[in-house]
Structure prediction request, 492 residues.
Amino acid sequence: MIEINNISKSFKGKQVLFDISGTFFKGKNNLIIGSSGTGKSVLLKNIVGLFTPDLGDVKYNERSFINGSEQDRKQIRREIGMLFQGGALFDSKNIEENVKFPLDILTDFPEDEKIDRVNFCLERVGLVNINKKMPSEISGGMKKRVGIARAIVNKPNYLFCDEPNSGLDPQTGIKIDNLIKEITSEYLITTIIVTHDMNSVIEMGDHIMFLLEGKKLWEGTNDEITKSDVKELNDFVFATQLMKQMYLR
Amino acid sequence: MRSLGKYFIFMGSLFTRRETFSTYIRLITQECINVGYNSLFIVGIVSVFMGAVTTIQTAFNLVSPFIPDYVISLVVRDMAILELSPTIIAIIFAGKVGSSIAGELGTMRITEQIDALEVMGINASSYLVLPKVIACVIMYPMLVILSIFLILLGGYFAGTLTGILSSVDYLYGIRYEFIEFNITFAVIKALVFSFLIASISSYKGFFTTGGSLEVGKASTSAVTNSCIAVLLADYALAQLLMG
Prediction:
């Protein structure tokens, strides 16, 4: 479980996050949704430690990430896997080296054990026989899947996904969503996903936080989101004709 | 001043939260190949032609019959050791290696590869930049020594094959009143210049924000700033060690 308490963040005097608190649950797909530029990715980066919040705290199973010791932070980081928007695969390494990288850095497993684990993770995300290919030789969807394989290779307790299906066609996007959903329940990971894709919200959102202009406006479950009376949330959820036809008959 | 402060903080961050020694050995070896071995061709070509041109132009300017021929190779030698090899090759090194470092780090920054390292708990600046700086500081003095040799070789061929001076005069000239400290001076310059080029280029690349346009700007800025720093350091070192 991850708790965030009163997170505020500003850049060059411009405040982008205002006093955000919330809880993200273990074994659930916790979604942070909102329009573009509303602070979702900034919030995620504050949670994983890429940014330090101006105010507030982030707790991983009661362990403070912001105010904890360097040793605590190091341990928490070992338990984190992250899928970036563009995959963020290392261009100079092939697929196998990319997926193996966290094991090389964070563990002292024998080489053959590492390779077995890499192959298992690649198979788990549906990729075989691409170990020696370079990131530039595979498609965007495959990069995302390799990114997921790299994120789970060290058996993380926490998985973070920044717009996992952006830039993908709807079918591939759904495959990625389903994969994250399966992995979350299979390994009982606390997963936090940043998205503005309503398809993902409907398909995989167990617990959802809605942000607007850097403020938390609503928090609830997948079932509750279509029945909310918050106007801004409804405007976001029912922005497409498809959603209107499905839920507002 | 703000950038200068940020640069020094960045340099300090290279030595905090370091990885294992074996990791650095592997990375430094790889970087030595990237910055040293891969620069051999351009350094070789430039050095040989600099030596040839310097010999011909020096001979063209020394028209007095009272000046012996060996002075030509003596001038080429001192120019090569004191300025051409350490400084001119540094400008070329900044163009090739500096822009490559800034481009690589800038691309890693905008494609979130640096963020991926940080999320894994790796100090990205130490992991990515320290091996590049160390590799440059190791390899560049070697390139400078090689360049001095190739300038003298280029000058030898240009001088003897065109009949400007005899082989005996050329070899006598490059040994005449040789000051050993000049080699030490060239190596000191090489160490300082390589550190400046690697660190400034890394700094420019590491803090790139935006997109591909900004990566291009970071590369250009890395080369420009490195060249200015090299020239300022060149003057300072000349004043300090020879003035």
